[in-house]
Amino acid sequence: MTDTDTAEARRQIPAFVRADLHLMHIDGKRVPALSGETLPHTDPATGDDLARIPRGAAPDVDAAVRAARRAFTDPAWAGLSGDARGRVLHQIADVIEAHADELAAIDSVTMGAPRRLTGEMLAEASEIFRYYAGWPTKLFGTTVPLGEDRLGYTRREPLGVVGIIWGWNGPMGQLPGKLAPALAAGNAVVLKPAETASLSTLRLAELLAETDLPAGVVNVVTGLGSEAGEALVAHPDVAKIAFTGSTATGKHVQKVATDSLTRVTLELGGKSPALVFADADLARAAFGVAAGFCGNAGQACVATSRVLVEESVRDEFVALLTSAMAEVFAPGDPFAPGTVVGALSTRAQLERVSGYVDSARAEGARILTGGERHGDRGYFYSPTLIDQVTPGMRVVREEIFGPVGVLTTFTDVDDAVAQANDTDYGLAASVWTSDLATAHRVSARIEAGTVWVNTWGEMSTGQLPFGGYKQSGLGREGGLEVLDAYTQSKSVRIAL
Ligand code: NAD
């Protein structure tokens, strides 16, 4: 890929990104922050400034929550039949599908992820809205036998205003799993996207005006987590917070939400293991494991950043893994057609990842491959594999959120499972084996919300629940469980 090819590929960056000043969406209107203050957006592949977004804070959040509260009870939304609400969700899927290239390109330029990856996220996004479009007609209550002179039944009702706060590492990847069920259940929402990757959400909000969604049902406030985010969590009229982010912030969010007993679901960080057994298809496992910790430049909550390989195949597997890392997962411009791994999302991320690798070096670990910044423009980091680690090292225990894997070996299933579970986190794991019995036994013993066998990272459209054990989260997204998270049950008892 020459500089000219890259320049040509970067012509895909949508004009929307270059607006002088982006605006928030409150009650169907596009508005600046009441303070008039703004925050910058930067292109991680070049380090260049891209645009400015409003720095919303508590007064803006209050206006958005009031708009959502009004819209929640307005017959234009509250009075819709399940069929009609389902049709609105299909319309949202339609506009996402029609503008998928644009939304994916916006995410690529703001978060540094390859177009191929953001394209996959957008394809999944519209499917998730279609999946949930089927739910408004199926939010059943039950009738309960209370004797001849009484009628008892339950109703499944929406919660009210739902605040949605999520990360920068896949804005259009993470939002649909929260927004679609919230709307399917009949709630109104206030969205607070990550401050470094808000543009796709602002564009989506514009596109929602093309659907029959009434004004005020979906509002967007941009700004810092400590200002706009915290004000949303603390707002007394918010019934529920759906949060994706780091474990540290998630714990803080739960504390703030406690005061008003606001419900929270938390999708948090991970330090997920990949377990490679000697009987696995090692070439396939090497590709899957490399994708597991290098994909999205390692900025994936489910990154399989701890690589556990059976001792007898260690050398063979490491050779396959390092060659996959070099050949397939070398960093490149997010817009270049062959790029599988793009940039880290900010300079702070680059410094954080470098700091972790330096700490491993200082503690006596060996860098098998990578271990340095890639190029001198933008925030790229070479895929890195670290060997000779000990269980207490920071690179083994803490989430790095960069393309860095740590390698250890195991002797048998018990040893593999013990190492896999030796972590405060429990988001995901991948198991690589050709033995069905090993696959099932190990999957049952791993303390994680998702176990992939002979694959990694597949999310499908929300049919399977997703969420964390231990400090990786609280509650589930997807599957039937998610509808309980966005509704509440009311009992009606009638004297006949
Ligand atoms: P972060 O916790 O810094 O920020 C996440 C969101 O929370 C942002 O929108 C931010 O503005 C907001 N926020 C920050 N402080 C806040 C506060 N005091 N009150 C309310 N909101 C606040 O996380 P990040 O660095 O953007 O994202 C990376 C983390 O997210 C990683 O730990 C990753 O594992 C995790 N993650 C988890 C999942 C999952 O589904 N489990 C998915 C993606 C990312």
Automatic annotation (TrEMBL):
**Per its record, what are the GO molecular function terms?**
oxidoreductase activity, acting on the aldehyde or oxo group of donors, NAD or NADP as acceptor
Tell me which residues make up the Aldehyde dehydrogenase domain: 37-492
* Keywords, alphabetical: Oxidoreductase
A Pfam family hit: Aldedh
Catalytic site positions: 267
Question: Which PANTHER family does the UniProt record give?
Answer: ALDEHYDE DEHYDROGENASE-RELATED (PTHR11699)
Task: Spell out the family assignment given in the record's similarity comment.
Answer: Belongs to the aldehyde dehydrogenase family.
Record's protein name? Aldehyde dehydrogenase (Acceptor)
